[in-house]
Each structure stands twice: as structure tokens, then as C-alpha cells.
Specification:
heterodimer; A: about 160 residues; mainly alpha; B: about 260 residues; 6-stranded antiparallel beta barrel
Amino acid sequence: MTRIIPFILYLLLIAMHEVIVRDATTIYSAAIDLPGLLVLVVAIYKPEIVCTWFGFAAGLVMAAGRPDLFGWHALTMAALGLATYHFRERLNLESLYSKVVLIFGGVLLHGTLVLAVTKEAGFLYLWLVSALPSAVYTTAVGWAFFLFKEKKITFQKVKAVF
Amino acid sequence: MSWLFDLFSRRSRNVHFGLVVVLSLVLILGHTKINSFVSQFLLSSLYYPFFKIRSSFEDAGVRASDLDRLQKALVEASVKLSMCQEAQRENDRLRAALGFEHPPGYRLTPAKVVSISGFGRHLPNSATINRGAKDSIFPDLPIINQDGLIGRVASVTDDYATIQLLTDPSHRVAARLAGSREMGIVKYLAQGGMMLDNFPVQGDISVGDNVLSSGLGGVYPAGLKIGTVVEVSRPENNPFCRVKLKPAANVRSLEEIFVLRPEPQ
């Protein structure tokens, strides 16, 4: 039971991001795709079944305000988690840059799928002005996360700079 | 039954993924009631605390902006109120001036006091008005307001004139009592205030008598109120009373005044 607590916290983090943080951190039309980023990070570090179910749950939480698109979001996120897991298994993900590339590809794919699912008009335009910049923005956040996680940047180093 | 267990354990990955697909398909194709129930559950369990936090922040922001707006409105209202009160006071003064009857043979030229000089421990002794030679103002014209005599024009430029007030110690006005018609000379002493000088001890004078200009001397017409007697003393071995006056016009608060110009013959 205690093993699922971190995942519940991740889901709460997604809810908090959608309600409070998203608008504050959006730059023009580029927003952080936190649900996608979390699913990808979980898929990089956790077993296959865990990342599939977490993707499913993250999709549900992310689309809580759009019940008509629940299923599609849950399915795309679960598929994203599963696909990322298999990429991780088949590729060498020791390098930080390979993880960053995987994050970028995953978030871009997620943004593209979300646009396809919501069936908004001007798909290509929205992809260029929203999905692509959001993927770059989210990748930058993910990169910072990996730098801290792999201790390439530590608080001591940051303090030493100042 | 064991074959099912074996299948499940060997192919658990496919079973899990199959379950996810089935659940997703149920949500995609299923009844809207299911979706609404799941949505309500997620919103009330995961989202609700953050909605509360966000709404409280927004309320605080709205309250702060309301406070700023109300403070600004309060300042604006205070300024408007002050201006209204000032306009009311000016209105009262002008209404009082309208009822003022000027001496016959003279016409009134209204003017505004632009500066008063000589403040200090004593009353001011001169003032400047916004009328000058261009308005046919020349030296020695009497200056009055609705309360009474103020002084005379001392010097003139094209646009402005300087007034010598009654409170200038070098100024003298020939005066008489309104009741007994006995005469004296009004002057202002820096130490003693406004006095009626040269009034004989036998004269009929008492506190509260009005003192008017007598018309002698050629500067001031007769009948302009100068002040009121507030103190009378008759010193021994002195042929004149000591009479203290309260000036009719308050020279500290001069604003609108009138220049008395003789009407053309």
C-alpha cells in the first residue's frame, strides 16, 4: 500500500499544476506538460506495469474537467508510458542527453495526441505555436530535473556560484 | 483453473495493458453517467483542495484591488468635498457681498486679493489685488468689503495694485461715532491694536459703539464702518480717552474685496 503513496502524490501534483501552477508558468502559449513529463519520468525509472497504470491514472486526472475525453487521454497516456518503457529497455539511457531527447520526443508526441484527441481546428498551427514550444519548455524543465536527480547540479554547487 | 493462473502470471503484462485498454474503451464508448461519476470523484478528491486554495488567493487579490480602488475613491471624494466646502464658503461670501450697499456717488470694482504681506506677530499691513491701472485703479481709492473699510490703494501697476491696510501703523483715518457723531482719528498700534485717538474724555462713548469714517481728509467717503468700540478708559490728567477698537473687517482672511471708484460727474 505504501508503494502507491508516491504515485498518489504525483497525481496530486498534476491536479495542483492544472489548477494553480499552469497559468502562472505559461509563457505565451508554451505550457509545462507536467502530466506527460511525470509519466515519462516514471516510465524511465519504474517497471512496465507501473508506468502503464500510472499513465492511465495521470490521463484521467489530467482530463478530470473533460469527461467526454477521459478515455482518450487515459489511453494515450498509458500508451505513452508503455512506449517510453520499451524505448528505455531497448536504448542506452545512461546518458543524460538521451533521456532529454526521449522526454522531448515523448512530450511532443503527447502534445500531438492531445491536439488530435481534442480535434481543435487549425491542427498544424496549434502544433507549431503550442505543442512544439510546450515540448521545448517541458524538456527544459525535465533537463533541470535530471541534472538535480543525477547530482550534476547540487545546492552546494549553486551556493558556491553565488 | 490453474491454467488461468499460469496465463495470468506469464502474460501479466498483456493482461494489465488489456485491462487499461478495456477501461479506456469503456470510458470512450460508455455511458456519460460513468464519465460524470469519475469526473466528480476526481474533482472532489484531488482537485478540490487546490480549487479552494486558488479561490482564496483570487479572493485576496480581489479584496486587495477593491481596497486600492476604495482608497483612491475616498481620496477623490475628500478632495471633491473640500472643493465643495470651499465653493460653499465662497458662495456665502459673495451672497453677503451682494447685499452690501455702497456709498452713493461711488461704484464698486470687484477684485481678488493675490497676496497679503506683513504677517508675523502682528496683523498684516499691506495686500496686493489683481486690479491695476488698466482697470482705472489709481492711488488713494478706498478699499472695502461687505464687513467694512479695509484700507486704500497705495500704489498701482498696470495689472496690480498694492493696498495699505488699516492695520498699517502709519495709516490714519478720520472717524466719528455712529451714535454720538463725535470724532476722532483711527490708527493702529503694533502693541495696542486698533485705537480711536484724539477722542475727548468728555465725549459720549461706550463699548459696542460703531466707528465710521467721517469723510474728512478727502480719501474715504463718510459712513464706512471701521470697527466697534471694545474698551474705553479715561486716564486721569489726560484730555483724551483711550479707546480700543475691534476692526470691522478681518484683514487676515481677505479674499474678495471692492475698490470704491467715484462715479463720473
